[in-house]
Structure formats: structure tokens, C-alpha cells
Specification:
This protein has helices at 7-27, 31-50, 54-59. With 70 residues, the protein is mainly alpha-helical. It has one domain (7-59). The protein is elongated and about 40 Å long. The mean pLDDT is 92.
């Protein structure tokens, strides 16, 4: 699994994920929307930690400046 998320992208994903989860828990009353926001928030945090995004691979996007293929 090669990293394909750059540092700026990782920070943005982490911030969005950290904001989405508590927002869903405390400010959203619709159950399906609450679940969607929590799942998306967890995915954003996971991709920020690992530095890999499967959708980026499918679309051929790479925001990581350094080629880490070793």
C-alpha cells in the first residue's frame, strides 16, 4: 500500500474527521444523517493516519510529493 496523500491533504482530512464526528453526535437529530457523518468522519481520520486513499488510486490522483515506492 503506497502512500498517495500529501501532508496538507492529511491535515485537512484529519480536521474534517475530527469536526464531523462530534457534530454528528451533538447537533444532528436525523439518524441516517448522523450515521453517514460518523462513518465519513471515521474514514477521513483513518485515511489521514494511514496516508492512503483507495479512491485516489482508482482515479489516479497522488497528492504526496515524494514517491515512496520502495
Amino acid at each position: 500500500m503506497n502512500k498517495n496523500i500529501g501532508p496538507v491533504d492529511r491535515v485537512i482530512r484529519a480536521i474534517l474527521g475530527i469536526v464531523m464526528i462530534p457534530s454528528a453526535l451533538f447537533f444532528v437529530s436525523v439518524l441516517w444523517l448522523k450515521i453517514v457523518l460518523i462513518v465519513v468522519g471515521v474514514i477521513l481520520i483513518f485515511t489521514a493516519i494511514t496516508g492512503f486513499c483507495g479512491l485516489y488510486t482508482l482515479f489516479g490522483i497522488n497528492t504526496c510529493r515524494v514517491d515512496l515506492k520502495k
